[in-house]
Amino acid sequence: MVIACGVFQLKLHTAFSLKEKRKVTKSIIQKVRNKFNASCSETGLNDSIQDIEVSIAVINSSKIVAEKEVARIGDFIYNHSEAELVREDIEIIYV
To answer: In this structure, are residues 92 and 3 in contact, taking their beta carbons and an 8 Å threshold?
Structure first.
C-alpha cells in the first residue's frame, strides 16, 4: 500500500479579505474532490490573506499510479485555479 501526499502552496493576488480567500480555497478543494479520487484539505497559512496551502492524499497499491494521480492533481490546480501555483511538494509513504 502506498500513500502519495502532495502539498501545494498558491498565491492569490486578487484577494483582499479572508472571505475572498476562503471562497477560492473552497472552490479549489471542491473541484479536486469532484474530479479525482483524493482526500483534499486546506492545511496551512489560514491567517494569510493571499497565501493558500492545500494538501492532497491518494492511496493506491501502486506507487506509479499514486504518484501520477498527485501530479495530475497538481497540473489541474495549476491550470484551473484563480491562484498562482508557487510550490509543490510530493512525498511517497509506504505502508
So the answer is: yes
